[in-house]
Amino acid sequence: MLEVAGLGALTALYLALVPVRPPAVDLGLALLAVVVILMTAGYTRRRIWGSPDWPAAERVRHSAMHLLTGTSIIVALFAALGAVRVWWTADTASAVAAHLLKPTLPVALALFIPWALLQQTLFQFYLLGRMRALWPAAPPFVLAAANGVVYGAVHLPAWDVVAVTMIGGTVWSWYYVRDRQLLPIALSHAVLGTTYFYWVRDQDLIGHWLAGS
What we know:
The structure is a single chain. This protein has 213 residues and is an all-alpha fold. The chain is built from ten helices and no strands. Helix 4 runs antiparallel to helix 5, helix 4 (56-90) runs antiparallel to helix 8 and helix 6 (105-134) crosses helix 9 (182-200). The longest helix has 35 residues, at 56-90. The radius of gyration is 18 Å and the shape is globular. The protein starts with a helix and ends with a helix. 25% of the residues are buried.
């Protein structure tokens, strides 16, 4: 309890004091946190999570199949939203195609995957496990929703990103409680995050990261 409370207080203080954060700062802090988490990964795996309820092959299949389906549906929705917005202003198919096929999008996706894996290690493997240990009687969806709220909150002050990451964080957390598989969740996060920023927000992530803003 003290561990989680201290981490929460420090995170809240950081968000309040540094509302606009360069990507390099967030990346550096995430890497530092992951190093600490990996040093105690054996303890977390044995004492916090314990043995999974299902065989590894079934957990991989279940997580990959469900997340692939859900991610594909949301990506199609993001593409439709972006296409409608561009068509509304430009009224040309070429403008829609240029919006959806930006050349830096594949590069951003490739870079987003390790960043998403870092975040999933922090929020699913570590924080969700601590929540589960502190509240062992809570149903999985309640734990997932609580973790989703925290996951969304760290994206302040971008309220649209907060909203979508709360929903995504809840879904990803539920699948981690059930399947204990980080990679399918990270891939879903990377694909959805990249397409949301490029197609819905019309924000070039590569330019954003290079600008360091």
